[in-house]
Design brief:
The complex is a heterodimer.
Chain A: H1 40-55, H2 60-72, H3 77-87, H4 94-105, H5 112-125, H6 130-143, H7 148-161, H8 167-177, H9 182-194, H10 200-218, H11 223-232, H12 237-242, H13 244-251, H14 258-264, H15 274-287, H16 292-301
Helix pairs in contact in A: 1-2, 2-3, 4-5, 6-7, 8-9, 9-11, 10-11, 11-14, 13-14, 15-16
Chain B: H1 38-50, H2 63-76, H3 85-93, H4 136-148, H5 158-165, H6 186-199, H7 207-216, H8 234-247, H9 266-275, H10 295-306, H11 314-323, H12 341-353, E1 362-363, E2 368-369, H13 371-374, E3 384-386, E4 393-395, E5 399-402, E6 405-408, E7 425-427, H14 430-436
Antiparallel strand pairs in B: 1-2, 3-4, 5-6, 6-7
Classes of the chains: A mainly alpha, B mainly alpha.
Chain lengths: 306, 440
């Protein structure tokens, strides 16, 4: 079983435990490009790792060595891979492994290898750890509500292990904390379209439109709900255009017309009142001057009035 | 400290990441310049090419990527003379994993390039590469470096790379970067497409399946997430669009073609991209996030590929990028911070997109210098050209020159077999150049 204590950073060459191992230095060749000025601790740890890896030694001390190497270099997928190879024959406690990953994640929450490793462990533990995982991800998101890795892991857990019941409420909560959080809007869409408990997009549309329109009225300069609204009508643009509630929101006089066009803007093949659309493009050229060339181009692409 | 693939974007960056310290040989000016300080950037990258400070040791596993940034960066800055090309070629080739036989390249391992010596051991007494850990991103970087220094790509053992690369493709069309298991997402679909494109051979992947995976990644708002269901993201969008372009599923300059049908929702994508330019002039990777230097490339390149780069506010972007330019050379992620290799490289690519004088033109789909555009002298006589998009060989009789690009007027096979049959496509002579020209 792996000790919870680190080696304390002692040079490996000074530890009795490693006396029988000859470290394997890296052979960079005679003319390496972009060589790195490794610190001594790093170089030594990796030299010992290479030796153990080459010998394919799957022992408790190998496990401890991978921990040390991971602390120094959490992005090294070879070390993580070897750790997985070692964990299995040692019959290690995978719950403890989750704790280990969590400790590394405290300073490396945006590291692909760590999250992949976590997934590997969770796959082996199964639905028993579902609640724990969802809870852990929540705590990471409470520190950074837009952590892409955390969201990716969360979507994987939901799809692989379930736990959808409270997810819409969770999105609601995050949006109450920050209505500008695009990750939360995206997760909302994910839940609404995929949750086995909610009946799918068409069934949810009416209530979601109400929710979204409220969000728009509260902050019309927030891009997220506008795009979300458009997304609710993904394959059914006609309904979007014919929805009076939405039209009135879009045409409501407000400072930022820019985002109004996003919702109104349907594919160019549908008949739009060309005068209105032209007028809006004209306004946007001025109020959204950063994108003036774009709005001019859009205006020129509008179908000509019959 | 986070791993730095070229495609790690910003979801791999910690806020307290160590930055490259200032080189003692370069003394900062009293106030930062309001122009692209090419000389300082060259000195900065030349320093890194020769030696990386210890701060980069945690990116050790991606040595080839670090080397790619320095070499390709110097090339963009028109300073490739700082690079010893022969030394680079032999060093890069030493990372290639070789199977003992053709049969072995189907054994499930990936015979691409290792990213570093961490996992590469000298072959054992039977000549076997033990613990082969070829990686898709390293392979992309290796090939990109070799192309940059003018190496004759025809001499590479591409068969092993391509045959074994198929092992990495998943049933849903995505790619795993290493055969021992890792995350699968759009980044590695892109690497695979770029590898096939650079080797001019698509036998390494099932393009249809890859295309399907990409389309599943398009979000409700028009951008692309890194995996289906994930939030649309500048880096994911780049990987999606560049891959589709490389594979031939979308044509160049789509917006000017008045294409009524495309496999992706182009107008929504375009609108999403346009909104990524924030009030400070920089580009953000996701809605309501801070502007960051590298998205001037990731999103800017998408716009370039679509033919919409002309719509952005270039003055505002330039102003933002200059606030991220370091007085020590290089670029930082956010204004007035210390520079790092990754953001510096993408700062240079962003300035190339802005057509900054003194920089080489950019190939948006590959994220490096547009080598074909550099080539002003094209040998037309007695050559057979291969169309990179419809793969039909055309003799020079049917080719007409249009500055540095040649247009293929050849009609070819059925739409089921090739994405752009029957249409005017652009072909490059790069494939033939290497056979007949001496290396640059």
């Amino acid at each position: 079983m792996e000790s919870s204590e680190d080696d304390g950073g002692e040079p490996l060459s000074r530890l009795a435990e490693w006396r029988d191992v000859t470290p394997l230095p890296q052979d960079d060749g005679p003319n390496p490009v972009a060589p790195i000025a490794y610190k001594e601790e790093f170089r030594e740890t990796m030299d010992y790792f290479r030796a153990i890896y080459k010998a394919d030694e799957r022992s408790p001390r190998a496990l401890r060595l991978t921990r040390r190497a991971i602390h120094l270099n959490p992005g090294n997928y070879t070390v993580w891979h070897f750790r997985r190879l070692v964990l299995e024959p040692l019959n290690s406690d995978l719950d403890e492994e989750l704790d280990f990953i969590q400790r590394i994640a405290n300073s490396n929450s945006k590291n692909y290898q760590l999250w992949h490793h976590r997934r590997w462990v969770v796959e082996r533990l199964g639905t028993n750890v579902r609640a724990k995982e969802l809870h852990l991800i929540k705590s990471i998101l409470s520190l950074d509500a837009k952590n892409y890795h955390a969201w990716s892991h969360r979507q994987w857990v939901l799809q692989a292990l379930g736990g959808w019941e409270d997810e819409l409420d969770y999105c609601q909560q995050l949006l109450e904390e920050d209505i500008f959080n695009n990750s939360a809007w995206n997760q909302r869409y994910f839940v609404v379209t995929r949750s086995p408990f909610l009946g799918g997009l068409t069934a949810m549309r009416a209530s979601e439109v109400r929710y979204t329109v409220e969000a728009i009225l509260a902050n019309p300069n927030n891009e997220c709900p506008w795009r979300y609204l458009r997304g609710l009508y993904k394959d059914d643009i006609e309904s979007l255009v014919n929805n009076h509630e939405i039209s009135s929101v879009c045409l409501k006089p407000c400072q930022e017309f820019r985002d109004a066009v996003v919702a109104l803007w349907t594919s160019d093949s549908l008949p739009l009142d060309p005068d209105l659309a032209t007028a809006i493009c004209g306004i946007l050229e001025h109020v959204d001057s950063m994108r003036a060339s774009y709005w001019i181009w859009r205006k020129n692409k509008l179908p000509v009035a019959a | 400290m986070a791993t730095r693939d070229p495609l790690d974007f910003d979801i791999g960056v910690e806020d307290d990441e160590d930055r490259t310290p200032s080189p003692s040989s370069i003394s900062p000016p009293s106030s930062p310049p309001s122009y692209f300080d090419r000389d300082r950037h060259v000195a900065f990258f030349e320093m890194l090419y020769n030696l990386m400070p210890y701060h980069y040791q945690s990116q050790e596993i991606n040595r080839l990527t670090l080397a790619f940034f320095t070499i390709s960066g110097l090339h963009l800055l028109k300073a490739l003379d700082r690079v010893d090309k022969d030394r680079v070629v032999s060093w890069v080739l030493s990372f290639q994993a070789h199977p003992r036989s053709r049969a072995e390249s189907k054994n499930g391992q990936f015979y691409g390039f290792h990213g570093s010596r961490t996992s590469q051991f000298p072959p054992d007494e039977n000549g076997v590469s033990v613990h082969n850990a070829g990686h898709l991103a390293s392979t992309y970087c290796a090939l990109a470096i070799l192309k940059t220094v003018g190496f004759n790509m025809l001499t590479i053992d591409k068969e092993s790379i391509l045959i074994s690369m198929r092992n990495l493709q998943q049933p849903d069309g995505s790619f795993m970067p290493v055969h021992v298991g890792a995350e699968t997402d759009l980044r590695f679909v892109y690497c695979a497409a770029a590898i096939c494109f650079m080797l001019e051979d698509w036998s390494g992947m099932d393009r249809e399946k890859a295309k399907d995976y990409i389309l599943n990644c398009q979000s409700y708002d028009g951008g692309f997430g890194l995996m289906p269901g994930l939030e649309s993201h500048g880096g994911g969008t780049y990987c999606a669009v560049a891959s589709l372009r490389l594979m031939g599923y979308i044509e160049d300059n789509l917006l000017s073609k008045n294409a009524t049908s495309s496999i992706i929702n182009v107008s929504l994508l375009l609108d999403w991209c346009m909104q990524r330019q924030a009030i400070d002039g920089g580009f953000q990777g996701r809605a309501n996030k801070s502007s960051d230097t590298c998205y001037a490339f990731w999103v800017g390149a998408v716009l370039r590929i679509l033919g919409g780069y002309k719509f952005i506010d270039k003055i505002a972007l330039r102003q933002f990028l200059l606030t991220c330019q370091s007085e020590y050379g290089g670029f930082s992620k956010y204004p007035r911070e210390l520079p790092d290799l990754y953001h510096s490289y993408y700062g240079y690519t962003a300035f190339s997109l802005l057509e900054e004088p003194g920089l080489n033109p950019l190939c948006a789909e590959l994220g490096m210098t547009d080598l074909a555009a550099l080539d002003r002298s094209i040998v037309l006589h007695h050559c057979i050209y291969t169309c990179n998009l419809c793969f039909v060989q055309v003799s020079y009789h049917t080719v007409k020159e249009n500055s540095t690009r040649l247009l293929c007027g050849e009609k070819s096979l059925s739409p089921q077999q090739k994405p752009w049959c029957g249409e005017k496509t652009i072909l490059t002579t790069q494939s033939r150049q290497n056979r007949f020209d001496s290396p640059r």
